């Protein structure tokens, strides 16, 4: 007999998604051709075989190298459009999307080209797919504090398109406190703040993100579970954690999905969400992550609904819009 049709994916918000991490091999080769760039891979299959990572840094090396194909406003619009088409199929109703301006300005691509291209695709997606979106501008923590400040100033004319600032790239050795000043400037400008912390870095980096940067959410934060006082703080303040299960396995933050702390995090009363991080590299988009944790951890439908509801609670949507999803 024919297999049962798969149920419609739960409506959800995606809150931890690097737009550059949605670059699929097919689009990478298409953009390389369009821009006359030679990629150091014979074809898509050879490239895909390079997607085997020992840790965060080994992923970042490939992630930054492939960005060479992103040069024009159209490239950024095509990239975001391709993600939003996938997101729609995965039940995503709202997406808060990271981008890494320094990874592009360092190659001579103006920040306005990046933001205008992304914004064009986001506006179209609202029309075509009914997906609402926000942009989160991330600073590369393995670059200097001065470079982050210069990036923030270069972005000032575009701040009407930007909801929040974030902090990403190689974590260990680059604590949040290094970026105290640029986050203070962002808050003064009325932006929300988030930071990757407690992915490879220690719980102390999560404390700093909260107490020095004043973040509204923690990205990843899985290592918070090592510090009971920190868990108590995150629970008391209901600070959202944007957890990325497939990413954690691929980057070897967690050995096996069956050992993921997600159920313990939920049991502790943390406001946890499930997200895809860099879906092209880590083997799954938003609902793929939901189905992976369901299967590996035996989560029931009520728990999956809680995770989906949490994604809207943790979002930067206006209260009235958020309520409609809860
Ligand atoms: N961690 C840190 N930086 C990143 C990631 C991540 O998972 N993805 C893209 N940049
Ligand atoms: Zn991330």
From TrEMBL:
One of its GO terms (molecular function) is zinc ion binding. Zn(2+) binds at residues 16, 18, 196, 277. CDD domains: ADA. GO terms for biological process: adenine catabolic process; hypoxanthine salvage; nucleotide metabolic process. Substrate binds at residue 278. One of its GO terms (cellular component) is cytosol. The keyword Lyase does not apply. Binds 1 zinc ion per subunit. Keywords: Hydrolase, Metal-binding, Nucleotide metabolism, Zinc. The keyword Cell membrane does not apply. The active site is at 199 (proton donor). Catalyzes the hydrolytic deamination of adenine to hypoxanthine. Plays an important role in the purine salvage pathway and in nitrogen catabolism. This is Adenine deaminase.
